[in-house]
UniProtKB/TrEMBL annotation:
Record-given protein name: L-threonine dehydratase
Assembly with partners or alone: Homotetramer.
Cofactor(s) this protein cannot do without: pyridoxal 5'-phosphate
Organism from which the protein derives: Tritonibacter aquimaris
Known function: Catalyzes the anaerobic formation of alpha-ketobutyrate and ammonia from threonine in a two-step reaction. The first step involved a dehydration of threonine and a production of enamine intermediates (aminocrotonate), which tautomerizes to its imine form (iminobutyrate). Both intermediates are unstable and short-lived. The second step is the nonenzymatic hydrolysis of the enamine/imine intermediates to form 2-ketobutyrate and free ammonia. In the low water environment of the cell, the second step is accelerated by RidA.
Length: 408
């Protein structure tokens, strides 16, 4: 047993005084779909609905003389630190991005109570991180990094200890979501070469893949904050030291709209509430199905702190990705009966989800923004054929990012 494995097991034992091991559950739906034994490591069922409590607990138990802890977090690390501050009677100052979902802010306040104060600073995590570190230098206290900390990494590795105990052996593959790299580096280091580890990142925050290609941590030019639990612009230096050997193809980038499809399926079919980062590993199964057939695979569902006010957006993005919803800019004659004629183009499985005139002053034609939903993606082929047959000019703007931002 390596020194790291020994420390991870010690950390795991300390956690049993605070919370029980999270479940490892075989998922029938996914197992049958991919022809493998697929297990979900349900970190969404921890006391703070994410694995972040582990790193916070392990780091704070090693700082028994420290009374003030400072952290920066997009939400889950904040909740872990807040929970442990209240449990240990410590003071916490927590910095969160302004864009953090309200659900995560409220839960952080609930877990920490009077033991924590929250500062909302920065649109992106890296701005929040800089503000927290500056405050800590000026005011004192122990800065508790969400991922770039040896004790945090060691604490997150307790996930691997539990998987090994619950499964009775090591799995063939494990799929790990990646944000700053603390959990993924800890779990993969514990398993070492015994398990093929795969790493899933959102395409708008693929900081591990960028670092592997550059052979060093690099700052992404742009970060999409939709997958807020993994929207990190630069992987941590300590995690990268443990992950720099990872083959580039093992760092999987997952489109944000794809992740939405998994969130909906897990919610509607399995009754499992996952935040976007929590669904990353499950959605990544589709990219490695040829590797995992007949194998034992663990997907880490890293968090379930989902704000249901985001559900309409998640449904919208999932429909667009599946080809079940499109937005068109349509040139429609401004005369009686024109709208009725257009509606006859639609089939029995088609529905108008949005209809808005963009140029109401045009004399002969008006530009209409129209959203169409259907039950099968191939139905749009027939819609476009009928539009062409009637000589109606239209532009599909569904995947036009610029127009979508302004019009949709």
């Amino acid at each position: 047993m390596s020194d790291f494995q020994s420390k991870a097991r010690t950390a795991t034992q300390a956690m049993r005084d605070v919370f029980p091991a999270t479940p490892l559950q075989r998922n029938v739906l996914l197992s049958e779909r991919y022809g493998a034994d697929i297990y979900l490591k349900r970190e969404d069922l921890s006391p703070v609905r994410s694995y972040k409590i582990r790193g916070a607990l392990n780091a704070m138990r090693k700082q028994t003389d420290q009374e003030l802890f400072v952290c920066a977090s997009a939400g889950n690390h904040a909740q872990g630190v807040a929970f442990m501050c209240k449990a240990q009677g410590k003071r916490g100052v927590i910095f969160m991005p302004v864009t953090t979902p309200q659900q995560k802010i409220q839960k952080t306040r609930m877990f920490g109570g009077d033991n924590v104060e929250i500062h909302l600073i920065g649109d992106f995590f890296d701005d929040t991180l800089a503000a927290a570190q500056n405050w800590c230098r000026e005011q004192g206290g122990h800065f508790l990094s969400p991922f770039d900390d040896d004790d945090v990494i060691e604490g997150q590795a307790s996930i691997a200890v539990e998987i090994e105990e619950q499964l009775g052996r090591s799995p063939d593959h494990i799929i790990l979501p990646v944000g700053g790299g603390g959990m993924s580096s800890g779990v993969s280091t514990y398993f070492d070469d015994d398990v093929h580890c795969l790493f899933a990142e959102p395409s708008g925050g693929a900081c591990l893949r960028a670092a592997l290609e550059a052979k060093q941590p690099v700052a992404l030019k742009r970060v999409d904050t939709f997958v807020d639990g993994a929207a990190v612009g630069r992987i941590g230096a300590k995690p990268f030291e443990l992950l720099k050997h990872v083959p580039v193809p093992d760092a999987l980038t997952i489109d944000e709209d794809r992740i939405c499809s998994t969130i909906l399926e897990m919610l509607n079919v399995e009754g499992i509430v996952l935040e976007p980062a929590g669904a990353l590993a499950v959605e990544a199964l589709g990219d490695v199905q040829s590797w995992i057939r007949g194998k034992t695979v663990v997907c880490l569902t890293s968090g379930g702190n989902f704000d249901f006010e985001r559900l309409p957006e998640v449904k919208e993005r999932a429909q667009r990705y599946a080809g079940l919803k499109k937005y068109l800019m349509l040139r429609l004659p401004q005369r009686p009966g024109a709208l009725k004629e257009f509606l006859q183009i639609l089939g029995p499985e088609d529905d108008v989800a949005r209809f808005e005139y963009l140029k109401k002053s045009a004399r002969n034609f008006g530009t209409v923004l129209i959203g169409i939903e259907t039950k099968r993606p191939e139905n749009f082929h027939h819609i476009f054929e009928r539009l062409d047959a009637q000589g109606l000019a239209y532009t599909d703007i569904t995947n036009d990012e610029t127009l979508s931002q302004f019009l949709i």
